[in-house]
Amino acid sequence: MKKKVKGLWSSKVILAFIALFLSTSVFAQQIPITGKVTQDGGETLPGVTVVVKGTSQGTVTDIDGVYKLNAGSDATLVFTFVGFTSQEVAVNGQQNIDVTLATDVIGLEEVVAIGYGTVKKRDITGSVASIGADKLTAAPIVSIDKGMQGKLAGVTVQQQSGAPGQKMKLRVRGGGSINYNNEPLYVIDGFIGADITTVNPQDVASIDILKDASATAIYGSRGANGVVLITTKSPAKGKMQVTFDANVGVTSTVQPYETLTPGELARLRNEYDVERGSQNLSFTDAEIAEFDNGKGTDWLNDVTRTGVVQNYSLNITGGNEKLGYLFSAGYVDEQGVILESYRKLYSVRSNIDAKIFDWLDMKFNTYATHSSNMHNGQTYRAISDAFGYPILWDSKDENGEYIDPNTQPSYGIYGAASTNPIQRIETTANGENLNEKITSTIDFTAKLTPHLTLLVSGSGMYRSGFSGNRQEYEPVENTRDAMTASQGYSRGHSLMTTDMLTYKNSFGDHTLTASAAYEYSYSRSQSSSITIGDLSTLGNEWYLLSNGEVSRAVSTFRETKMQSYMGRVNYDYKGKYLLTATMRADGASVFNEDNRWGYFPSAAFAWRLMEEDFIKDTEWIYDLKLRAGWGQTGNRAIGAYATQPTLDFTTSKFLYYPFNGTTVSQGIISGALTDPNIQWETTVQSNIGVDFSILGGKLSMVADWYSKTSKDVILQKSIPRYTGKQSLTGNFAEIKNTGFEFSADYHIVNKDDFQWNAFANISVNRNEVMDLGGDEQIFIAGEDAFSIWGIDNKFVVREGESLGSFWGLQNEGLWQTGEEDQAAVYNSKPGEPKYTDLPDADGNTGKIDATDRMIIGNALPDFTYGIGTDLYYKSLDLTIQGHGSHGNDVFNYNRQRMDDSEVRFLNPDYLNRWSPTNTGSSQQKLPTGTEYYKTHVTSQYIEDASFFKISNITLGYTLPDQIAKSLSLAKFRIYASVNNVLTITNYSGLDPEMSATTQGSDAVSGIDAYSYPLARTWTFGLKVNF
Amino acid sequence: MKTYKLFNKIVLAVGILFMMSLPACDLDEGSMGAVSATAFYNDIAALDAGITGIYGTWHRVAWGVDVLAAYTGADDLATRNESNKWVFLEGDQLNLSGGNLRTINIWNGYYQVIYECNNFLENANPDGASEEEIAPYHADARFIRGLLYFELANIFGDVPLVLATTPDYEIGLTPFKEVMEQAISDFKYVEQWANNTARDTPAGVAGQEINGRASKTAARAYLAKAYMLLSGWPTYENHWDKVESYTRQIIDMGAYSLLDDYAQNWGNKVPDDWKGTPFTNANARENVSWKGNKESIFAHHNKVDVWPVTTQSRSYGRFWRDWMDMFVENHFHAEFPEGYRKNYSFAWDQKWRYAGWTAWPYAEGQSYPDHPSMLKFQFGTINASDFKKWSGLAGSDPAPETFLGFEHVMNSSNDMPLMRYAEVLLMYAEACARQNKPGANPSAVEALNYVRRRAYGGGYEKMGDIQANLPVEFWKNPEPAVDYPQAGESDLIQAIIDERAWEFVAEFGGNRWLDLIRTESLAEALSSRDGSEASLIGDPNDQNRWRAPVPSTESQYNPNIK
After folding, report:
1. Neighboring chain A residues of B160 at a CB cutoff of 8 Å
2. Would you say the pTM of this structure is higher than 0.90?
3. Are residues A599 and A184 in contact, defined by beta-carbon separation less than 8 angstroms?
4. Pair type for strands A971-985 and A947-958
5. Cβ A557–B21 below 8 Å, yes or no?
6. A783: Cβ–Cβ under 8 A, 6 or more apart, which residues?
7. How far apart are the first and last CA of chain A?
8. Which residues of A touch B366 (CB under 8 A)?
9. Could you read off the pLDDT of A130-189 as tens digits, one per residue?
10. What DSSP line would sit under A216-231, residue for residue?
């Protein structure tokens, strides 16, 4: 019943719109007008669009800048040309109107995507950050997130992993969700849900990021974390143009992990033997000499390599007035710095623009990719294996065969070891992962009347994936009869239709644009995977699974739907006062019927002070605009079936039991505990901003202040374990982000043969947990273990504190000589770490345990910033980019591992460890005593990871036009580039950006645990235009 | 003309609009991708999957030695003062904390299984099925629930009694006695409804049929054990008549019996001609002939399978040998009566230890090298090529370096017995002795002697010798070397309790610990604690130390749980 009412409502509204606006058409007396358009300095401007305001009547200036048209004697002519400030001239009966256009220094006339439409930059009321193709691809990049890093205020991009094809962590104004995704919504050419890791950066025309709620509310339930709108290049009509860009790079780790060498380790152990009073030394001098001569293995080094990255892109575009085309093809082959890791991405794009009738336009964009990758996930264990494997052992024997660890000498140190890390990489790389994806969007834009436009858009995405693998035989872990092979298929498709009616008209000084739209989206995904054991042969790899016995067959199915109604009104008075109001209603299938619909309103106001008489003549101000906005957005957070009480037979654990001792049966267990009445997470955001340009537009600045409160945040709240479950999912929390952003662009020099620009931006965000539904603090249920065995909760979410708070023991340095008695209370000795002993619930002290944990750091930065500059001198161009972060902590789990007894003390700091005669050292003594860091996070491993990075330097040379022409080329540029150039930081690990945490989370972030190392890449390339 | 064109546009536009809006109809989520808890159990055949889920969960939470952390305070188990062994050390020093990760695991895991049982009992009631059809399945769920409450009550004392899936965030603690009564009520339901002919009829067991599910016999054994525990500290109710009657019923049924070879309760069957025959990996894993034997009343069933099936046992092998999570206290070892059982249970000689660890890093003031290690659960996990040497037990002399190989490094197909016929005999013996009725003592003594004689194994030391040299059911024949009373032995009850200590050492029931606290004799047992053991922190007379503290995190969420 409810649904029917909605449908009726929508059709009524549409009919009303049609009825209302068909009736408006006014005719005045037409007179012929002619004139000439020039720019500052007198040169004529061909190609300028001249339109009679409020109509579709218009023309374009010819080669001499001359135009001719007919218009009403009381009409107004509007002159627009890319790169120039548009100008309006009242006809007032004149028949000859010459116009001089001013250069648009700060791009006020540029069109910016705002979701379901575009506006000129001058008319924007919300907070939107934009980046064009030139800046995005100033450095050779293989994915667009890298191109955005450090360039946009309020947008923080962190590269957590160096694995090929890994997405970066991107945040727009901090995160408001605890357990669920804080990533922004990605929209490509209107299609919601783009995969930014596979978009060919060369296809992108511009990226516009909607930051505040007045801008994102049009995306309603998906707008809470900001919206990234990617617009691909439109066909360039005219003669066919061909662009070819190719570059090749070499990539390698920036610095090695510093560990003890085998010789140092052997000597350390002998020292240690003496310290603990043992009669026998572990190593003889002869053995140590052998280690010094190269025996042993630096596994951390040996699992890495120098990789080659290749990137090719071909773009062909052209067409005529009726039909324009753009075809592109891309190929990326990235080898990672860890052995056997790679990604190969093949992509093709076709963008077609067609004018079917003079009132009907069509746009048809299709993008398809095929990729093949290996070992590029976060969980890949090469580094952890390399940390744990005995460095005193050689990898291969004299015949080149891997040495069986069971035959390796124990040296009195090593216990049973698992597989050689390099061998394991090879073992697990025996497989393939293939993915295909195709996305198509078709838009029809019908100009029903001069004022009324109908957009009907349909888009769809289809993806498929295949993964297959077979274990390699190696005697230590994979015995021949225990080997398995498996393969899995997945597929998914999403469909989306949008119908939007837009009315636009001017009434004197008043301009009104109103849109109403209906949208429906559907997505479905499914997968199946089969694992077999008892392989009769190893010959068929993973292709023929009838070659063994099925040990596991699993399939999944997921379906979600959403229905939306939205409206937007833009009102403009004399270009001075701009008002935007939007409303969106979303109904989502993932919620139960009573909570299905969410309503997301917004309003924004902008005041272009520049148009006011009292400021117009202030010479030093070039442009000034104030903006204020408010809006409400949502985050769906949960996935399908989360509100239904379910049983589970997809989980791999807990499901099997061998009742008769020989055959294993599979059972079913309960699913997660959820609140069936779960609702949207709602974010309310206010924004105040100012756009300010001086020095004739050479220096332009944007400043924004915002306050963003997320309510009903969905939380997997830990509950007492006697309930049988770890957590309950429901709307419990409230989180607030407040912040300030500032960005400046300075065109320092702007001459024909010398241009110099610089930009800088800073984003300050303060995150605070306001409410946890009655609890003072909670722990994230199912906190990712990151292979950190035995350590309990690493983070706490506490009222009044920021997300990302590390939870553990506070280290107070080492116990010193003379403190034996106090230390003994804790079963410790001088030289062992000393921890703050908080009283437990009963007020007792005298023991270090879970009750002594406190907040010992925070993973979220106080502010992030970016700076950059570009120089063009004659044929040379140079760009330098940098970005940084301040006030964020990282849990350096790697260093902790190197300290602990399980990896047998690899930390080189042990060479200068504490001893009664070396009390100044902060490195714990040997033997270590109780290793509290094995069960809790301890603060000596929480480090300040503030940093500044020069992330890229690119130097290019463009062949002078004449030479290029003589070679029949339109343009020819060669370039050299290096990224990850320099990092200034006090962080002791490899790179302060590295983290093994999931990208969606802010509550759990900043753990450097066996992360895939970030690399430095040297790239050389060329770009040719024909 | 103009109007006509406009009309055209509208028709086209509206046409496209409707065409593309067609799929927009309902927002119903459906349940194609989910398994609805209520709809799943719509017929009797579906109930099996739920029972498997319960057992699978139970297996997974109890597949390691965690559970022993609650019992290390007794005079049998010891651990070492090293890294992650603190969890066991806390118990050994009578100092269990609310932050003990192992006892927390017991709590969390057991309640997780209880949830699965409650979930099953609430949902697994297919329409139209009769009570007779459903009850045998419910019996399985109630048996596991009863068993877990039985263990929770004995480990933690008062615990929250959760019998429904809807979370109660304000629930308080239910007294020990009532929790045990709940377990008894579950066991009684099982006694009434279990339908397990393979384990409840003489023919079934005699045929060595394997069946891991609940049985009337298992329920009776646990009813006896529950009543035995209620008869001691802290409740001191006198239920010895019930203990006697339930155990008598099992004995009289005649289906269960002692195995002749004590060692056959663990591990896999060794080929009869094991002498000189290479013991291949394949048949070590697959040979399951000792599973579900006539002594096993209830056991965790295990099987090593290919990933991701995790049905193996992790209570064997590495825990005892490589990682040395636990071994036995010196005094306990010294008092342990000589004979086959002792040889099978421990190794004392230095060479039995993991060679690589003798020097590093445990030398500094560590007591571990001075302790015997547990062999009982290493059996059947040992690598084939070493089997022969190993099975020679104390008499052989393998060089330590060659003694590294394990068949299942940490995963084993061996079952883990929870309730053996030997325990039924000893409970019966104690019940008779406690009641001291005319004629009871001879039965008590006879049952005790069965266990003693079997343990003594005719004085033989090696596996194989028992079968080769002793008659079937040799333990029914008098054995002067061990029969009660031996010289100086006068207290029959004490003799039975001592026998329980030795017979069940390190098994999952935690019998030694429970016996010491139910008889309030912990302090006495620990009074002869060897100087090489970790010093006690808690006072063994302090009854607060006899129960593990409720995990400290629980009171964080619910202040009523303390």
Report:
1. 722
2. no
3. no
4. antiparallel
5. no
6. A793, A794, A795, A1004
7. 61
8. none
9. 999 988 988 888 889 999 998 998 899 999 888 888 889 999 988 878 877 889 999 999
10. HGGGGGG-TT-EEEEE
